[in-house]
Amino acid sequence: MIDPAKVCLFIPAGLKKFKLDLFERIGDHIIKAGGRVVRHDAEKLGCLALDNADMIPIVGCQPESTPLIAQWRKSGRPWIYWDRGYCRRVFATWLPRGENGGYYRWHLNSFQMQRIRDVPEDRWVRMETPVRPWQRGGRHIVIAAPTRTYARFHRCENWIADTIDALARATDRQIVIRDKESKRPLQADLEGAHCLVTHGSIAAVESVIMGCPVFVAHDSAAALVGQTDLSKVEAPLYPEREPWLRSLAYSQFNERELIDGTLWKLIA
Hints:
Layout: E1 7-11, H1 17-32, E2 36-39, H2 42-51, E3 56-59, H3 66-75, E4 80-84, E5 104-108, H4 122-127, E6 140-144, H5 148-154, H6 159-170, E7 175-178, H7 186-190, E8 193-198, H8 203-209, E9 214-215, H9 242-249, E10 252-253, H10 255-259, H11 262-266
Parallel strand pairs: 1-2, 1-3, 3-4, 6-7, 6-8, 8-9
Antiparallel strand pairs: 4-5, 5-10
């Protein structure tokens, strides 16, 4: 269990209003629990982390946090990452949407879920998200491209070019590229698809729920039910998904669960 009085949330500069409002609300919850907030100054966050050995910094997908995370990983220091949830988000999703702010994923020392836990089905059942059977025999490959911010944050600016090159060596299938701003439903691109390929987009999680197998980076939660080696693109995996789905639901939380302490008890 994490002590919320020992965490420190980083709020970056230049956020759009809806994001800033969310960050500020989360920050207010953390301050009321005894924790800290650092606004705009990543260097200050790094210094605070150095000066307070028991403080756990909280960051999101901001490129200025990338060198800090590298330092924390190298030193073995605990840190927390939070971002949009896997299911029941309120925007940027092709699955059923959430309510009252929806769900956000929170992880200790990782960007996404890295293991399948032995947890009950209760939280997943509450998601009320239909799971489609695996589709087999598809023809084309869908690539979900990272945003510029994501690529800078994860230092994978050449991912699209490298991925197309790797696929060209492994298959002659047609490739369909979609970006984050695409108005075309993900379901439409996945219809008749052989697989979806992405770095760490939550489109991979949605693809697995929609029954389309995936190839992703090791950091992706979908790596637990997909492949990470593009040379094996002609041999996608179709594993049992129920334990993975339960674990996803135990890795995302709404604001009420931050206030009542559920997040700090279950975060992993």
